Amino acid sequence: VAHIEKNFNASTDVFLAALIYLDNLARESIIVVSPRNVHRLFLAASVVAAKFWEDGFMKNSHYGLAGGVRLAEMNRLESKMLLMLRWHLTIEPAT
């Protein structure tokens, strides 16, 4: 995960949003985060967050390289993350 943060070229806010996305999915029992999947889940959530929250973002080929996955897999991970999130990318304050 540190490798992603180091090579991603995104703000800290992006990674915070990615963690919130993953926490929301885990709370809804949509995903189970484990040592085997945390890297890809965090990568996908970070890409989605970067594209939604940043004014400028990189191509998926850059994100795939930063995360150590091929472009086709990066595209698939992003698509699945958006579906799991039901395209709901805004973050509501806790009540």
Describe it for me?
- The chain is mainly α.
- The protein contains five helices and no strands.
- Helix 3 (38-53) crosses helix 5 and helix 4 (60-67) crosses helix 5 (71-84).
- It is globular.
- 26% of the residues are buried.
- The mean pLDDT is 91.
Secondary-structure topology with pairs:
Layout lengths: L1 H6 L4 H16 L10 H16 L6 H8 L3 H14 L11
Helix pairs in contact: 2-3, 3-4, 3-5, 4-5
How much of the sequence lies in strands comes to: under 5%
The helicity comes to: 55-70%
* Count, helices: 5
Write down the overall mean pLDDT: 91
Biggest β-sheet strands, sense, barrel: none
Q: Which regions contain 5 or more consecutive residues with pLDDT less than 50?
A: none
Shape summary: globular
Could you give the order of the helices and strands?
HHHHH
Rounded to an integer in angstroms, the radius of gyration calculated over CA atoms is 12 Å
Quaternary structure of the protein:
single chain
Total beta strands: 0
Specify the structural class: mainly alpha
Salient structural properties:
mainly alpha, 5 helices, 0% strand, 95 residues, globular, single chain
Please give a quick description of this structure.
The protein has 95 residues and is mainly α.
